[in-house]
Amino acid sequence: MKKFKKVLALSLACAMALSFTACGDKEESTTEAQKDTEATTAAGGDDTTAEDTEATTEGGNVAAGDEGKVLNVYVWNEEFKERVEEFYAGYEKTDATHGKIGDVTVNWVITPNENNAYQDNLDAALLAQADAAVDDKIDIFLVEADYALKYVDTDYTMPVKDLGITDADLSEQYQYTKDVMTDSNGVLKGVSWQGCPAGLVYNREIAKDVWGTDDPAEVQEHVKDWDSFYAAGEEMKAKGYLLTSTVNDTYRVYSNNVSSKWVTDDMKLNIDPNIEKWAKDAKAMVDNGYTNVADLWSDTWKAGFFPEGKCFSYFGPMWMIDFSMSADEEGSVGYNGGWGLATGPQGFFWGGTWVCAATGTDNPTLVADIMKQLTTNADVMTDISKKKSDFVNNKTAMATIAADTSFGSKPLGGQNPYGMLAEGADKIDLSTISAYDQGCNEEFQKAMTDYFNGNIGYDEAIDTFKTAVSEKYPALIIE
Fold first, then answer.
1. Residue-wise pLDDT tens digits, 333-348
2. Domain 2-195+352-395: assigned CATH number
3. With contact defined as beta carbons under 8 Å apart, do 360 and 241 qualify?
4. Predicted TM-score of the model (pTM)
5. Which end of the chain has a smaller Cβ tally under 10 Å, C or N?
6. In 10 A of CB 33, how many CB atoms?
7. Distance (Å, rounded) from C-alpha 327 to C-alpha 333?
8. Where along the chain do its domains lie?
């Protein structure tokens, strides 16, 4: 166990520094770890047998067997917790952070994302995992796409096949959601109940005022490419509206459509031409008075959730529309069904939440069943989509809902966007994703703020960005 802990600690330490190439021979280290833990890694605990792993009840939920009595789940908000509470058969809520599944206590460890607090807390717990008391071990933890590789390419995440989840089980999931969680050896390390293809979220009343229609197909003609979109900005300005709430609203659309990674194979920082194009286009938006200079999630950004914000559009997926745009607050645009969804200038995706099984879990059967029921069961996932407006990670479920003429999203005024979104999900390409995306994307937007405000030139802003990245990732070669 001591040798295994050292291997895991080295692996995560390297990942946290995002210097995977300096971690030595990963395949050799993994092999040594497996020699020490062959009996426990596959089953997840010292006393768990193959029979225990396969045991289930008639309802599809696990029989407790010899597994642990506490399931520890590390999350940063209530989203996954709410879905387990509502859609996993047999779950009983006991209080705000605890529940029961049979005789297993579910302990939700919720640490908000702000200031990297969630990852910091998770990292500390993972480093202590091997020697933690049985009831304190992490069983499940969640990750997002921007930093998934930090954990995927370590031994802290269990291969889903070791939990008994097969390729056949995963056959209806969108490929990009599997690509995010596939390590450098081609091993899948996590699954998701949701997909996050995104589009242009527009204010229907503003569309009618400017163009005389709020029909998604007709609105799309006005925003079908970037030239059309920015031309629409002039029309919006003439009527007293903002094209977007902030200058950063368009960033992910551009960054999702790059042709190269932030960091090359020889560890050099690379600024893709499409990132440079975003900076120049965004500066023009600000100079033309089409948008504000402010961060996403700021009060300025949120102002457009309400009619008085006079904002025509946002860019985002279904989770943002339903979960982050005040759709449940009386008087908001979404509360009154005032948004519409169009494809927009370019397809893209934003976010997603992936479920990982922590190596060392003493509840592998229960972990596997939660994963299967919430991410591979088409009936459960259809129910999630209809009740939570999630775009779920199941092609059968999405095809069923897309064809359901009686179904519509309340914030979207009854529009059924799932056919359009499903088409986009099949086209998502993650060949340019890297372990440095979160830091580089954040620092680039920060560095451009003074440029957008006219305080510095573009070249000076680039120098600011390079300095920030060199401090965050000292191993990178920055020219």
1. 999 999 999 999 999 9
2. 3.40.190.10
3. no
4. 0.82
5. C
6. 20
7. 7
8. 2-195+352-395, 197-350+431-472
